[in-house]
Amino acid sequence: MKHKTRKFLYLICIIIILSFGFGCLGNSSPEPHDFPSGELGTYEINTSTINVTNSTTFFLFSNKTVRAVSTFVNSSSLKINIPKDASAEFGSGKDPVIKDLVVMGNISINNSNNFEDNNFTRIPYSSSFLKSGNSRIVILEFEELSTGFAAYSFSREYGYFFHILSRNETITVVLPAGHNTSNIILGSPKPIKPDEKFKDSKNRMWLVWFDPYPDKNFISVKYYKEYLPRILSIVGTVLLIGFIVSALYYNRKIRKLQKEREDMEQDVRKKE
Questions:
Q1: Closest CA to 169 of 72, 81, 83, 68
Q2: C-beta neighbour count of 198 within 10 angstroms
């Protein structure tokens, strides 16, 4: 009887393992999916048709929105990697993962940066996405080798940004206006030292890494409102002063009690 029970349990375990395995395999093929399109005016485009290079710029906002612009050069496809916790849609059974998608470019001639004309226009593409571990990979495929950009939006936890690197490109992260990073307590970027770091006229901090892949696998940035370090410093100073005052007060009380004890002991000795 025990032998039959053991065989039955083994069979159940094998069925579970096989089911899990087939489930994982089923998620390994991209699924065609149409993502909601958007308007070009939604985005801040700093890309020209001259000397285009692979890059992605992420504009972070305080309302948990991220607007990204990814450029591609002489490419037949573009993969957009969205970490699992980067979208408010994850876990809710809802897609699209990304939204307000705008794809513009030009057909490359002779695999170079020469174009049929000097303007980027909307180009035809097909889209799909792939569930892979803790990410969803959005795949845009173009009818011909093209150079241009894809602009898209997604949701991201406020105060922390994370991006998985998958190609040689320049990564730029633009923090919300009035925010900063690189505080040892409140948070800092990784890699710790961006290749460039500056503020623009809108009081936004720009962090730039030139071709961090494949030496680095990801970019992460913990950011905060720029006045928080001052508040933290003030609170720390107040606590330190409070500690010193308390220490002096209790030290004085202890000395006073010790003096009273010594006086009492002397009185006892005199009476003896």
A1: 72
A2: 10
Kindly state whether residues 257 and 191 are assigned to the same domain. Answer: no
Q: 204 with 183, same domain?
A: yes
Gap between the Cα atoms of 124 and 132, Å rounded: 26
Residues forming beta bridges with residue 179, ordered by sequence position:
225
Give the residue from 153, 145, 157, 189 showing the smallest Cα distance to 171: 189
What gap in Å lies between CA 78 and CA 93, rounded to an integer? 25
Q: Is the pLDDT of residue 37 over 50?
A: yes
Q: How many domains does the chain have?
A: 2
Domain enclosing residue 108, as ranges? 26-226
Residue 46 has phi, psi (to 5 degrees) of -110, 20
The beta-strand segments (E) located in the chain are 31-32, 55-60, 65-83, 99-107, 121-122, 125-132, 135-155, 160-164, 170-174, 179-180, 189-190, 196-199, 205-209, 218-222, 224-225
Predicted model pTM: 0.76
- Tokens 């069979």 belong to residue: 11
Question: Per the domain annotation, does 140 fall within a domain?
Answer: yes
Q: List the single range of 110-119, 125-134, 209-218 with lowest mean pLDDT.
A: 110-119
Classify residue 233: in a domain, yes or no.
yes
Q: What is the pLDDT of residues 221-268, one digit of tens each?
A: 999 999 887 877 787 788 888 888 888 878 888 877 887 777 677 766
Q: Using CA atoms, how far apart are residues 214 and 42, in angstroms rounded to an integer?
A: 31
